[in-house]
Design a protein that fits this description.
Elements: H1 5-10, H2 14-36, H3 39-55, H4 68-94, H5 106-126, H6 131-142, H7 147-154, H8 158-183, H9 188-206
Helix pairs in contact: 2-3, 2-4, 3-4, 4-7, 5-9, 6-7, 6-8, 7-8, 8-9
């Protein structure tokens, strides 16, 4: 990323903002996907995030630090708003017939549906955490922010990030153990599905076992 990008964005340089988008669009999308569990909502959150970032660019503090915490902070707020309406949206979609597949985009659609199913398996446990715990895990574990950057993104003290992350890891481990116990009670025809889901879910859970910092 070029030097002085923050100053250029503050000044309204569209080329600089396009550079910012190219650098962080996927990061913002992935963060939104983890917090919402829906690829289409995540795309909306990503668009809203960059729109809000452009509109509030003059509020950026001077400096040369990475803009990743700023963008993920905006995305976290947008995801909160989106999550408030997900229940109503899902209820509406459940009453509608499934759309016919579009041949030209069948492979892409299948890939996205598979991603959504895998994420849903993780969110079986992850979704039971409190909102703040989900956000700090998504920022620190999946998006790779350090404590100070996560604090900046969430607008809370660094000490709160530390304690919240520690508490979230402990709760997630406990909930994961409860989920494993529940899976043992699944009927035989479900065990194959459960094992496939567990294989995927185990990957992020491993990251919560120890704090590398």
């Amino acid at each position: 990323m070029s030097d002085g990008l923050r100053a250029r964005i503050r000044a309204g340089d569209r080329e600089a903002f396009a550079e910012l988008y190219e650098s962080y669009a996927r990061t913002v999308y992935n963060h939104a996907f983890r917090l919402t569990g829906d690829w289409s909502v995540a795309e909306e959150v990503m668009g809203d995030t960059f729109l809000a970032a452009w509109r509030t660019r003059e509020q950026l503090e001077p400096g040369d630090d990475t803009l990743k915490p700023w963008l993920l902070g905006v995305a976290t707020n947008k995801a909160r708003n989106a999550n408030r309406g997900i229940g109503r949206r899902l209820a509406f979609l459940a009453r509608r017939p499934a759309p016919a597949p579009v041949a030209d985009f069948a492979d892409e659609a299948a890939g996205r549906i598979d991603d959504a199913r895998r994420l849903a398996a993780v969110r079986t446990v992850f979704g039971r955490l409190r909102r703040g715990e989900q956000e700090v895990l998504a920022l620190c574990v999946w998006s790779g922010l350090d404590y100070a950057q996560a604090a900046e993104a969430m607008g809370i003290p660094v000490g709160t990030v530390r304690s919240r992350l520690s508490r979230a890891r402990a709760r997630l481990r406990k909930l994961a153990e409860q989920r494993l116990a529940e899976e043992k009670k699944e009927p035989p025809h479900r065990r194959g599905e459960v094992q496939r889901e567990a294989a995927f879910a185990a990957l992020p859970f491993q990251e919560f076992q120890e704090d590398p910092r």
